Amino acid sequence: AWKPEARLFDYYERAHINHILAHQNPATGMFAYMVPLMSGSHRVWSEPFDDFWCCVGSGMESHAKHGESIWWEDADRPADMLIANLYIPSEADWAARGAKLRIETGYPFDGHIALSIPKLARAGRFTLALRIPGWCQGARIAVNGAPLPAPRITDGYALIDRKWKAGDQVTLDLPMALRIEATPDDPRTIALLHGPVVLAADLGAADQPFDGPAPALVAADVTQGFAATTAAVPAYRTAGIGKPADLSFAPFFQQRDRRTAVYFKRFTQQEWGVEQQAFAVEQARLRDLERRSVDVMHLGEMQPERDHGLEAKLSYTTTYRGRHGRDARTDGHFQFRMKVKPGPLILQATYWGEERNRLFDILVDGQKIATQKLDADRPGEFFDVTYAIPEALTRGKSTVMIRVQPAPGMTRAGPMFGARIFTPAGETRT
Q: Which H/E stretch holds residue 336?
């Protein structure tokens, strides 16, 4: 508000269209607890009586503001400049000029914006400032049908300074095309956009499970592998570049009852070949690990925890990126019983790589076998840690109790996203 800049309203507009509009279901009026972006995820909606979270209250506040900041006037010279920040069908009553202005448009799906001045108390000179989005190349402006070839651009706004009268018409055309944007930290992770609208791949109905791999896009030029399927909204389908199968894309905010993918790894054909080989190696490793496994514990899931006799104090379940886990707080713990067999065994635990300042002990039948530290040194990934179980702790036993608790003086243990006991390489379970 101190100094309007188009780049800031680009951010505002992107959040408004792609996140705030995604956060309410217009068919029911209900609000999403969160709007997840992980591949295969979906939105969970509130209920009129049973689920009324704090997000519902902030949701009501957000959706009362759709008309906010479309139009501004220059606070220092309120009769000299009117600013159009957002292209939302609307009317503005400009008291300083005794004027009414109107925007008519199909934006954000259509890049044609018609701005008119149906009322103006008296003809006069002032500046009309139109935001030119940063994603747009080749914006075109016309006043009363006459092209404005080289408008002055300041801070991303096209400034039209002239003598205006009632009935004047301005058109702004913002060419839109499918494009990709990479994440700031990884040029191989991309999102697809059309104008300001983020597109998402449809991965199926929200009430059906999704257990496939996150989809990828394989092409030297990704956008050339998309074909439009409708003109009413930006909707596309990949043609041979979607892996493991081709995908249909539509605006993310509209896919309220679907599982979606928003971010994609992109590969060239050569890179995809390498990726497939690495995937095959990893699958072979997992099959070998399964052959050697004696027992597997899925923490944070009701039936597996019951099956393994889980006991807990000041312990809570959690879910990160679709994986369930469990932690323990100050003076708390969680413990569960796992199967063992004679001979050397290994306990494996899975953690999230961005947890920090965690130090906790792992015990087998009351004897500490390891102290684990988590300090955010594996950002963005789950990782496994293995601990050798002394044979003396399993000799003559069919099960042991695994216990996880904060180290002395520490406040948190875990979260742990599953545990597995298996034999060393070269041995198999019996």
A: strand 323-339
Span 167-220, pLDDT tens digits: 999 999 999 999 999 999 899 999 999 999 999 999 999 999 888 889 999 999
Distance CA 403, CA 38 (A): 31
Query: CA-to-CA distance for 361 and 343, rounded, in angstroms?
Result: 23
> If DSSP codes are grouped into helix, strand and coil, which group holds residue 96?
helix
CB 293 within 8 A of CB 346: no
What lies within 8 Å, CB to CB, of 392 at 6+ separation is none
pTM of the predicted model, to two decimals? 0.81
CATH of domain 6-24+63-173: 2.60.40.1180
How is the chain split into domains, by residue range? Answer: 6-24+63-173, 178-271, 293-422
> Is 6-24+63-173's fold the same as 293-422's?
no
Domain 293-422: assigned CATH number:
2.60.120.200
pLDDT digits (tens, 9 = 90+) for 279-292: 889 889 989 999 99
Using the structure block, give the residue that is written with the tokens 């300083």: 96
* Single-letter residue type at 149: P
